[in-house]
Amino acid sequence: MSSGLIEHWRLIAALLLCGAILVVRRLRGGSPSRGRTLSGGLTASEKHTAGLKPFHTDASAAREPGEWTPVAFEYPAIAPCREDVSAVKPVPYRPFKWGEYHVTMGIRSMPWDEWTELDREFAHFHRIREHRIQTRGDKVVQVLPERPGLVKGAHDAAVELVHELAEYLSRRYPDVYRATRVDAGHDGNGWHGQPSIKDITIIPLGKTYGLEKGDPLTIASLLIQEDLAIMIEGTDGRYYLQGGAILIPGSWRLRDKIGMSLDDIHISGTVPQFESKLQLSMSRHLKRMPVDKPIVRNNYSFQVVAPRDKADPLDPDELAWCKTMKGDEDVVEGQPGFLRNEDFGADYPGHSAGHFSAAHSDLANSSEPVDPSLVRLRVERQTLRRLPKTGAIVFTIRVYLTPLEELVKEPDVPGRLASAIRSWPGDVAKYKARSVFENILEYLDAHHQRQLDSHVEGVTRQRCE
Ligand code: HEM
Fold it and tell me: What Pfam families does the database record attribute to this sequence (predicted)?
């Protein structure tokens, strides 16, 4: 066959393939993004978005910094989760690897069904979160007004967020959340052309929240187990923390970071290799982030908790604040660090990062080995998505605490964890306060060896070095 004929057939095959893809998408009701061009013959669910700009996946990139035109975007159909939440175990994220450690963004795309996660700890989290709001007020929830010429306020984004969450939650967990909508025909601001949600009830907790009746970000934060940060793009192209419900952060405080740019948040926290490995890719990613490409990432750290007889009965695992490692949340001035006193020194202009660290914690001043039964793995699951109306980026942070004693029963985990801890470069080891709990390495090694000796399936036959 001549090469011209081959090209001809290739072209026909490519056209047929494109046609087939379009037909499949149409049959499925659109691409996963549900980005639609508004044309004649709108469906009921599309009518309410008719005044908005059609959504295109890359619309985000081509605009002036700080500007956003609301787009017509509908959250994709959600698979309802009908499991009994009180029986759902927390997801066992174990985001550490054998071998070398590299600082990377570590992002992957977020399945739309999994914007937030709910499990049997919901009631426990809710008690702590509610208590923190009642006792700490604007130290834990804040929505900043506009800073003229620099960045918009977060109020509109908070209103959009609480409505998005209520729509998502009532579809994703229909046995947990019951939504009541405003009268039919009153408006079409809910998802898929439905009237807006007025109230939402958390059925197992017997709590009802009126979405227009209180502070939207506070309500949003009480509906879920995640903490929430609202990032708004400024006219300088940076993203600013303009709103936050940071109720269980463990090791940083909203009041130290509110209003800061994302760069300053990370630099002031002395996040290792931020400027060399993360800053550029992060800011590029956020600038271009379209509404249909949410992302998720995990991180992990360790915390040592107080013995049970000295623990706070409401929060014995120090979910909200790692007091044993960081000292009293209200005593420390400036931005707390995980460091021992002798590690002080990393100062950042304009912040007092260097001079307080864990000076008020007993642990920081002790050289005693820690008791492995007091060590917890703290994993975070973080998601980022852009809201279609305000263009704000919502950052969710979900915390999972697992006792080390439980963790070592999992196949391969003690070995992998020991390998990961040993592979942290110096700056990472300092950030994660390895010196405080380094002695757990022996404990992990012993459990790894035990798993090898008893031929537990899936254990890597490797030394933990
Ligand atoms: C793709 C986006 C992001 C990446 C890749 C990223 C990366 C990181 C990394 C590597 C750390 C060190 C701890 C760890 O995760 O292992 C960190 C810490 C932190 N990040 Fe992010 N981050 C992102 C988004 C955000 C956002 C949107 C916020 C908004 C509040 C934020 C707030 C923080 C804070 C408060 C800390 C702790 C700093 C401290 O210790 O004082 N991050 N981030």
Answer: HODM_asu-like (PF11927)
CA–centroid distance, 240 to ligand 1, in Å, is 13
Give the CA dihedral 281, 283, 288, 291, nearest 10 degrees: 110
> What's the CA-to-centroid distance between 258 and ligand 1, angstroms?
14
Output the CA 362–ligand 1 centroid distance in Å. Answer: 27
Ligand 1 centre distance from Cα of residue 340 (Å): 22
Closest of 203, 225, 199, 201 to residue 211, by C-alpha:
199
Pairing of strands 53-54, 71-72: parallel
pLDDT tens-digit profile, the chain (465 residues): 444 455 556 645 544 554 444 333 333 323 333 332 222 334 444 444 556 776 666 556 678 999 999 998 889 999 999 999 999 999 999 999 999 999 999 999 999 999 999 999 999 999 999 999 999 999 999 999 999 999 999 999 999 999 999 999 999 999 999 999 999 776 888 999 999 999 999 999 999 999 999 999 999 999 999 999 999 999 999 999 999 999 999 999 999 999 999 999 999 999 999 999 999 999 999 999 999 999 999 999 999 999 999 999 999 999 999 999 988 999 756 555 544 333 433 333 333 333 334 444 666 666 789 999 999 999 999 999 999 999 999 999 999 999 999 999 999 999 999 999 999 999 999 999 999 999 999 999 999 999 999 999 889 877 555
Q: Work out the angle between the directed axes of helices 155-172 and 216-223 (0-180°, nearest 10).
A: 30
229: β partners: 244, 395
- Output the CA 16–ligand 1 centroid distance in Å: 45
What are the structural domain ranges in the chain?
A: 95-453
Query: Can you tell me the distance from the alpha carbon of 271 to that of 260, in angstroms, rounded to the nearest whole number?
Result: 15
Ligand 1 pocket test: which of 140, 255, 266 has the largest number of ligand atoms within 8 Å of its C-beta?
266
- Whole-structure pTM value: 0.86
Strand, helix or coil for residue 151: strand
Nearest CA to ligand 1 atom 2: 282
Residues with CB under 6 A from ligand 1: 105, 107, 229, 231, 241, 251-252, 257, 262, 265-266, 269, 271, 278, 282, 299, 335, 384, 395
